Structure formats: C-alpha cells, structure tokens
Amino acid sequence: MPEAALNLWFSGFPIIIAMFMAVLVYAEVSKNGGIVDVFWGFGFSVMVLYYAYVSSHGAGFAIGLRGQLLIGMVLLWSLRLTFYLLLRFLRLYPEEDPRYRAFREAWGERARLGMFLAFLLQAVLLSSLGLAFAVPMVNTSTGSLSALELSAVVLFFMSLIGESIADKQLEDFRKNPANKGKVCQSGLWNYSRHPNYFFEWLVWLSFWLFALASPGGLFTIYCPLIMYFFLTRVTGIKATEEQSLLSKGELYRAYQESTSAFFPWFKRASK
Hints:
The protein is mainly α. It folds into two domains: 1-141, no CATH class; 144-271, no CATH class. It has eleven helices and no strands. α1 runs antiparallel to α2 (35-58), α1 runs antiparallel to α5 and α2 (35-58) runs parallel beside α5.
C-alpha cells in the first residue's frame, strides 16, 4: 500500500467527523435525525474534493486523467444521491424519518447518546471507505487507462443508471394516491425488493475495480464488502423492511415471500 495513499486517507478522517458532528447539533436541536442521510451522500463529494486539493496542493501530485475521471465519477454519484435524499428529507419535514424516530424510542433516555454514536459510526464508516478513492488518486502513472479501469467505468455508469431508474420508479409509485398502502412491484421492483441498494452496491464494486488497477488497490476490497454488509444487514434492508412490515403488513410479507431481497431474480411462488 503506497504511503501517500494512507496519509491522504487518514488526513480525511477529522474533516468528515467534524462535519457529521456539526450535523448532529442540528439534528438534536430540530429533533430530526433524517438530515444525516443527506450528508451521507454529500460527504463523499467533500471527501474526494478534499483528496484532490491535498494531492495537488499539499502533496504536489499532478492529478492526471485517472484522478480526474475518479473525481467526476464520485461527484456524479454522490451529488445525485444527495439530491435524492434531500428531496426525501424535505418531503417528510418537519416530521422525522420513521427509522430515526423508532431509534429514539428504542434508546429512550439514552437517545442523545445513541444518536451521537450513530452519527459517529457513519462518519467513521464514510471516512474508512475513502481508501478506494485515495489509492487511485495518488497513482501518478501517465499511461492510458487499463482495461480493468475502463471496465470499472462501464460498470459504474450502468450501476448509476440502474439506481436512478429504481429510485424514479419508486418515486412515481409513491406519487400516485391510488397506491397508498400498496407495495411497489413494478419495473425493477418486480425482481428485487431493493434494486436501489443492489445498484448502490455495484457502484462500490466499480470503485473497487477502478482502484484495483493502482498499487495497493487490492486492499480496498473491504469497501464493497462493508457496503454489502451494511446494505443487507444493518441500515439498508433490515431497517427499511421493519418499517414496511409495520405500515403494509401482510401485503409486504407476501412480497418478501415472492421476491428476492437484494440480487434481482425471477419471482418465486408465494406460500
């Protein structure tokens, strides 16, 4: 692992943690923890721009085509995600996202401590994932992009388009008053209960493949693995489906029985 990549990576931790602590203050004052989702998306833009600035001004690296392409990819994905999450936050405002409201109720009198730990965890997690960006950022090779990097770019854009389509299909479904209380099973949602999370994970797989072409890139394999774990076991599917079962009951339970949770696949017969 290049020392320059590790130094760049570690230097970003205080920036992201400070940002999330500032967001926590707002969340506690407004009693609305949902704002952290918006800054989860925006934090990656902050991080990659910070890396670019430090690399070109502090460390003296000339950011070539590889670094410029990486910055563009991260900004495109991050800002799209930020805008989508901001719209979701504003749609619920001033009410708090049911996931965070349930979190506060579960922690009771220790809710403030729980929120601090949750925000800190997200800040550390976001910072930890930055190694996938730091590694190619310090790659000073002036040669053309490798076949692996080009494949990663293709996978990235396919994944970004897939995630955007899944989000748009769900948004259109929710906007129709006739669908209130129903479960979205149209389009990509017919093959996966969470196609947006699936394509989000593929985005991270593309970031790892892009980093893999640079020295030390193999070590960033933990990035898509961590995202898979959190999306399927912690903050993604688990939390979302708990709320869906509460609001939609047996309709959602039948959806669970017939439709793959993560990887898109054909429907199976309901029990």
